[in-house]
């Protein structure tokens, strides 16, 4: 595929941002600045904009704190990918990163639990975790997934691809409605 074909594919799929590499604090700041400009270009304002930013920040924090290093020859890098696209109804935030294969089952259980809860149950679960002061080994309290589901108002999409005995690739897809959905 040549550069023009790649450009057309990105335009046709309404990809606002696509990133692959190591997630650092500088990259997070840069992505948020780019997203501010990109959302201006599509005239997105108000509550939807806040939701997109909130979900994007949570996704990037997950990548920053939870991506595992992939050993590639002599290199030991914590590579990840992030993409933001849209269609007529939704914005889509897609992330992908390496995780330890042994973490698949507990992560899947946490996401499935979050996806099984109603809006009110998510709020209660969020408060319960805050009240219990439960902090994980990596410094989080598992609030990110709950917050993404609460802010997006959608179920979290995910998939795992086993890479080798040690690592798997985890992809997460969060969608944010462009307009307030009718109940």
Low-confidence stretches: none
Query: What share of residues is helical?
Result: 40-55%
Shape, principal axes of CA atoms: globular
CATH architecture: 2-Layer Sandwich
CATH topology title: Heat Shock Protein 90
- Order of the strands making up the biggest sheet: 1-4-5-7-6
Write the layout of secondary structure elements.
Elements: H1 3-12, E1 15-22, H2 25-41, H3 46-66, E2 70-72, E3 75-77, E4 79-86, E5 90-100, H4 104-116, H5 119-132, H6 143-152, E6 157-162, E7 167-177
Quick overview of this protein structure:
The chain is α+β, with helices and mostly antiparallel strands and 183 residues long.
Describe the structure.
- This protein is of the alpha+beta class.
- The chain has helices at residues 3-12, 25-41, 46-66, 104-116, 119-132, 143-152, and strands at 15-22, 70-72, 75-77, 79-86, 90-100, 157-162, 167-177.
- The protein has a 5-stranded antiparallel β-sheet with strand order 1-4-5-7-6. A two-stranded antiparallel ribbon has the order 2-3.
- β2 and β3 (75-77) form a beta hairpin.
- α2 packs antiparallel against α3 and α3 packs antiparallel against α6 (143-152).
- The longest helix is centred in the first third of the chain and has 21 residues, at 46-66.
- The N and C termini lie far apart (43 Å).
- The mean pLDDT is 86.
């Amino acid at each position: 595929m040549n550069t023009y074909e790649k450009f057309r594919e990105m335009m046709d799929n309404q990809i606002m941002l696509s990133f692959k590499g190591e997630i650092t604090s500088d990259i997070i700041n840069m992505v948020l600045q780019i997203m501010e400009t990109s959302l201006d270009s599509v005239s997105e304002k108000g509550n939807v904009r806040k939701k997109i930013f909130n979900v994007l920040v949570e996704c990037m924090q997950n990548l920053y704190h939870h991506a595992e290093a992939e050993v590639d020859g002599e290199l030991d890098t914590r590579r990840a990918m992030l993409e933001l696209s849209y269609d007529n109804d939704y914005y889509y935030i897609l992330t992908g990163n390496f995780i330890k294969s042994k973490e698949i089952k507990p992560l899947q259980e946490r996401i499935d639990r979050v996806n099984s809860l109603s809006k009110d149950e998510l709020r209660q679960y969020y408060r319960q975790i805050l009240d219990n002061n439960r902090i994980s080994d990596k410094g989080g309290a598992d609030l990110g997934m709950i917050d993404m589901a609460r802010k997006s108002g959608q179920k979290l999409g995910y998939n795992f691809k086993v890479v080798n005995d040690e690592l798997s690739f985890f992809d997460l897809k969060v969608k944010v409605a462009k307009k307030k959905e009718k109940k």
